Amino acid sequence: MKHIIAGTAGHIDHGKSALVRALTGIDPDRLAEEKRRGITIDLGFAHLELTPEIRIGFVDVPGHERFVRNMLAGAGGIDLVLLVVAADESIKPQTREHFEICRMLGIQRGVVVLTKCDLVEAELVELVRMEVEEFVAGSFLEGAPVVPVSAITGQGLDRLRAELIRLAGEVREKDASRWFRLPVDRAFTMRGFGTVVTGTLVSGSVGKDDEVEIHPLGRRVRVRGIQVHGQAAARAVAGQRTALNLADVETSELHRGMTLTHVGLFPPVQAFEAELHLLPSAGKAMRSRTPVHLHAAAAEIEAEVRFFRGRTALEPGQSAFARLVLRDPAQLLPGDRFIIRRFSPVVTIGGGVVVDLGVRRYRRADDLDARLRTLRTGTPAERAALLVREAKFGCGRAWLIARTGMTERELEAAAASPAVVCLRQPEFWLLDAEWFRAQAARITQALSAFHRANPLLPGMPKQEVRTGELAGAPLFVVDALLAAANHVVAAGDLVRLASHKLVLREDEERARAAIEEAFRSAGLAVPPVAEVLAAAGVESGRARSLLQILIREGRLTRISEDLVFHQTAIASLRALLAGRKGERFLVPQFKDWTGISRKYAIPLLEYLDRERVTRRDGDARVVL
Question: What pTM was computed for the model?
């Protein structure tokens, strides 16, 4: 079944609630004060199955100026609007304000309903119809049906239902595949159940026993039960009026304006960048740092508007990119629409759409407008590519979801873009393709320079690759760059060019042989390293490089800074101990077995402990 949300909009006492009651048989005025005063103070809800395939939920909003904030709380999830104009009064101030709010919220479809037609002559109905058509000209309601009705006599209701069926067929359903988000417009306690919240499920779905997160509290709670349009349900999907019975939270902790989402996806937002439009009716220019009331979904938050690049004000009827700084954190995503109202007098003056949740420090050379236009109108792949390009070492799935609200499907589309490089292991990670190619080439160049400067070294330590521009880069990003770099071989902790070969000169070959022989002939009573290198016959730098070559080849073993043993001596020692397996011994016994002094015995025993040839047991050791 297709689920559509329709909202009423219009001036106080123009018959919005009576119209909803006549269409659905449900009285949306739920408060005793509303019934006593005959006006809608808070949001009212009703539903109607237009056809077996279409269910429409009505959000009846208050028309009185004092209650416009309640109207805004319900307008966020509306798919189509019923602009209600009483035939005996025509267009009034709240008609205009509600209409402008619907425009700012990006509502695309609707129908004009002329109510109370039983109270006036047909000629006056026709005159009001002409006034309304002129009023909506150039808007999303231009050419929309204008339906005269009477909630008392039933006049025009069948035609209105037919128009609603037609419009509902044109409405694109809210996306149940997106992340779950439920703006809370009511929170109350129900006897026998506990805490209940209601709202229009704007995206995703939620099931019984799911864990959800409350924003901006950051609390995780369990969904104990679900009702959709007053009926128990196992699951609610996008587009439905939804009530959730929540465990692990008190009603006093909740209020209108909070949002429920999937757990762990979205951090609180304290500022965002937006495309802002000031209504022609705003009256005067808005200056930078103007305080406003910001309404987004069901939330109302005090905010400050800040313009970019020397702009000091925004004139009525103009649009501009701006940053809005919130007094209190909120849950927002790019694409969310909002309304702003002046502090005094409290009237609607504009609105806009969230473009970016980051607070970027713009440099003089940045093309700010081009950046924000891409984030405003670009495809998911284009938006992801821009954000990846701005991230120093790319970004992962969780960061992109938190920043953009993209679905897994959109992330995969972004990963297929030629503008990015996608890593899959050890995690999904996107890197700017141009940066990636440049860094891979830089690594090749750096290795070439390293080999020229260090011809006797087999390669550069991998850790040295993570310097300069790659300082702080995740190791898996460095590994991906090494794999992509031309003719680069990574072996253990070293990287080298595939073409690099160790070729010793004649004097270096003689020196290497002399170094090895000095340690081989010494057995376990080896000479100091410095002494051997000094007698090698080449300068100290090359001598040390030759020593490292012998150690890497396994011909020599370094057990401490100044103790290096030949492999034959270590092999003989292991063989000696292998014949004493399980035997317990002290240091003096070890000295007797090997014929060496304590100077060599202690470091060798510590080496054997590390190699698990022996195990220390108090003052003694055991041969393993």
Answer: 0.76
